UniProtKB/TrEMBL annotation, chain A:
SMART domains: AAA. GO terms for molecular function: ATP binding; ATP hydrolysis activity. This is ABC transporter, ATP-binding protein. Keywords: ATP-binding, Nucleotide-binding. PROSITE patterns: ABC_TRANSPORTER_1, ABC_TRANSPORTER_2. It holds the Pfam family ABC_tran. Residues 5-235 form the ABC transporter domain. Transmembrane segments: none annotated. The lineage of its organism: Bacteria, Bacillati, Bacillota, Bacilli, Lactobacillales.
UniProtKB/TrEMBL annotation, chain B:
The chain crosses the membrane at residues 20-41, 175-197, 218-240, 252-273, 285-310, 330-353. The keyword Cytoplasm does not apply. It comes from Lactiplantibacillus fabifermentans T30PCM01. It holds the Pfam family ABC2_membrane_3. This is ABC transporter. Residues 20-316 form the ABC-2 type transporter transmembrane domain. It is found in: Membrane. The lineage of its organism: Bacteria, Bacillati, Bacillota, Bacilli, Lactobacillales. The keyword Membrane applies.
């Protein structure tokens, strides 16, 4: 079975408002998909339709080759959902919360016990297993929220902004945990409006805005999408020996300017002549001190695609 | 299902307000109302006592004369005696008239065969008079026939009252123990009203619906969990009232339990139904319903049978009182009526809830 999640033409209308508009994407097994978009883009609505919590207005969702319909309850064992809002029973202890959901997924007896212990360990809550979540910090509650979704060891995990409003330490812990889960073969769909997270975790990225997919691909593909040129600054010694004309003559170099020791270049992304530039510099006897290549991030991509910032 | 039921039970047991609603409030009200209205209960009985028309049959002809003399001589208030030819005739009369008793006298043995609609005051009167009569007959007989020394005989041995036929007495504490237990069953509507509200606020409901459990299963398991808690509450309250007020539950234990359980189930589901159709109005409407039902059903003070017929509390309280303090056969109609309405409502809720996107 090679297909993971296949979403085709997913649409949700709330009255006249189209919250999700013909969204399609696929997620290969064992990969992480980042679903990136600003507030109100339709990320949660998309996930809720996929998981069956909301009825789809139209569209099709296939998971591991099976059609995901609201009545197909058996398939629900194969995925887990970390909801955007904390969804925790405050009158049950952390372990009881996790155990309850393990039970709902059909785990019993010793299998349930080990699953609970394991899930709590993954999010580092073992020492707080018997405490009520009301006494937890925001970060701990977020982590419990995750443990409750992974107790049944799903093949696919949906995480809807699992790191909202928590301390950097907890956030880092969660991101590391996700990386570990992916290493163990879990498929993850991860929504966020933090690009750093998506850049760090995602194999593939879907950018969604106003309910529509505006871009889909790997980080590099997305960056290339908005620009065919990149800027590189090379700091050189012996700048007086440098012949600018020879550099400009290299195929793929669109622009070359020298300000004191800084050689600023605009290069073709496709042919990437950086190597050749460096060789030419060395031929000329110009020593290269350092190369600075400002990274084009998803923030820039989003800005370029929509003319707006991801976050205000 | 079991997983859900266990979780609900655990939560109900941990909820502090439940202890106030279903333990502290009812028991303290029983004590307070019982104390305050103790005297009211006593005088009320005295004031409303009706004369008892005793239909008596004497087997032995010679003894019959003696008995006739004795009963005409003893003028007891609220008691009058009419001789009848046979037990059959006496009983037939009793069957058709209120405030009557059929009494058969054979040697020094007196048997009360049928007694209809007698309250405890009337009953005490009848029993006392008959005991006196039996003692006199026994003395006379002993003196005449055997010329033995006169011994005092315990009246209890002489008068065998057919227990299955006679009303027993309830103290004011017992009246309110029964009434308050019934009344606080109504407050299970509050649990019903908020059955899914909390899970909805905490977002856990949506989460549960993402697991393999179906909406219907989740709904019914949740109801079942609270019902189980309700049964536990009833058992505990029965235990406490038996200890504190000597509630005679043992006279009809399964029957009493079934009555409270059906009332509890009805209001639990009624609360849920109200929340389903009108979440905002639910709370206010429920309060009115509870007060009305409590008032009509005799939760605050005794009400007439007509009023009780309009209240589920009455459906259950009437049969319960007669089961515990009279000899009338057990009347299961309240239980069946409550359970039928409960089942109907639950079916309706199931239909409505399953249709909803997120309930
Ligand atoms: N139940 C609903 N009824 C009506 N409109 C809704 C409902 N749920 C969501 N919407 C609308 O659909 C749009 C998408 O919302 P959604 O929650 O999917 O966004 P999101 O990308 O998850 O945003 P965020 O980052 O804030 O979580 C929003 O405009 C929202 O107002
Ligand atoms: Mg969202």
């Amino acid at each position: 079975m090679t297909t993971g999640l296949v979403v085709t033409g997913l649409t949700k209308k709330f009255g006249t408002q189209v919250a999700v508009d013909n969204v399609s994407f696929t997620v290969a097994p064992g990969t992480v998909l980042g679903l990136l978009g600003p507030n109100g883009a339709g990320k949660s609505t998309t996930i809720n339709m996929i998981t069956g919590l909301l009825n789809k207005t139209s569209g099709r969702v296939e998971l591991f080759g099976e059609n995901l319909t609201p009545t197909n309850t058996a398939i629900r064992r194969r995925f887990g959902v970390v909801p955007q809002e904390l969804a925790i029973f405050d009158d049950l202890s952390a372990a009881e919360n996790v155990r309850y959901f393990g039970g709902l997924y059909g785990l019993r007896g010793t299998a349930l016990k080990t699953a609970v212990t394991r899930a709590l360990a993954v999010v580092d809550l073992t020492d707080h297993a018997n405490q009520r979540p009301a006494t937890f910090s925001g970060g701990m509650q977020r982590r419990l929220n995750i443990a409750m979704a992974i107790v049944h060891q799903p093949d696919l995990l949906f995480m809807d902004e699992p790191t909202v409003g928590i301390d950097p330490q907890s956030r880092n812990y969660i991101l590391t945990a996700i990386e570990k889960m992916r290493a163990n073969g879990m498929t993850v769909v991860y929504t966020s409006h933090y690009m750093e997270e998506v850049e760090r975790l995602a194999d593939n990225i879907v950018i969604i805005d106003h309910g529509q997919v505006i871009a889909h691909g790997t980080e590099a593909e997305l960056v290339n999408l908005v620009t065919d040129a990149k800027q590189v600054t090379i700091v050189v010694n012996h700048a007086d020996q440098l012949e600018l004309a020879a550099i400009t003559a290299i195929a793929g170099v669109q622009q070359a300017t020298l300000h004191e020791q800084n050689l600023q270049l605009v290069l073709d992304v496709a042919s990437n002549p950086l190597n050749q530039v460096l060789m030419t510099l060395i031929d000329q006897g110009v020593a290269v001190d350092s190369i600075d290549q400002p990274k084009l991030d998803l923030e820039t991509v989003f800005l370029n695609l929509t003319g707006r910032n991801l976050r205000d | 299902m079991i997983t859900v039921i266990k979780r609900i039970l655990l939560q109900d047991l941990r909820l502090k307000s439940n202890y106030i609603y279903f333990l502290i409030m009812p028991v303290s009200l029983m004590v307070i109302l019982g104390l305050v209205l103790q005297s009211v209960f006593a005088t009320q009985l005295d004031a409303t006592v009706n004369p008892v028309h005793v239909q008596y049959v004497v087997k032995d002809a010679q003894q019959a004369k003696l008995v006739k003399q004795l009963v005409t001589k003893t003028k007891v208030a609220h008691l009058d005696f009419t001789p009848r030819a046979s037990t059959k005739v006496a009983q037939a009369y009793v069957r058709n008239h209120a405030n009557t008793a059929a009494v058969t006298i054979e040697q020094a043995h007196i048997q009360v065969a049928t007694a209809k609609n007698l309250n405890d005051y009337q009953n005490a009167l009848l029993k006392g008079t008959l005991a006196e009569l039996a003692q006199t007959l026994g003395l006379v007989k002993t003196a005449i026939h055997y010329q033995r020394p006169i011994v005092t005989v315990k009246s209890a041995e002489l008068v065998t009252v057919n227990r299955a036929q006679v009303q027993r007495s309830a103290t004011s504490f017992q009246y309110y123990a029964l009434a308050m237990m019934g009344m606080f069953m109504l407050y299970f509507a509050e649990i019903g009203l908020d059955m899914f509200g909390k899970a909805r606020r905490q977002q856990t409901l949506a989460r549960e619906l993402l697991t393999p459990i179906s909406k219907g299963q989740l709904l019914n398991a949740t109801v079942a969990g609270h019902l189980l808690y309700g049964l536990l509450v009833i058992a505990v309250l029965m235990g406490i009232t038996a200890g504190l007020f000597q509630m005679p539950w043992l006279r009809a234990l399964p029957f009493a339990f079934a009555n409270f359980a059906s009332l509890m189930a009805l209001f639990l589901v009624l609360g849920l139904a109200l929340e389903t159709v009108a979440a905002q109005l639910g709370e206010g409407v429920m309060q009115i319903v509870i007060q009305l039902v409590a008032f009509l059903g005799g939760g605050y003070f005794p009400t007439s049978t007509t009023m009780m017929a309009f209240s589920p509390l009455g459906w259950v309280m009437g049969p319960l009182r007669s089961a515990l303090w009279t000899s009338n056969p057990l009347n299961w109609s309240g239980v069946w009526l409550s359970l039928s309405v409960t089942a109907g409502l639950l079916g309706l809720i199931n239909v409505v809830m399953r249709r909803r996107e997120v309930f």
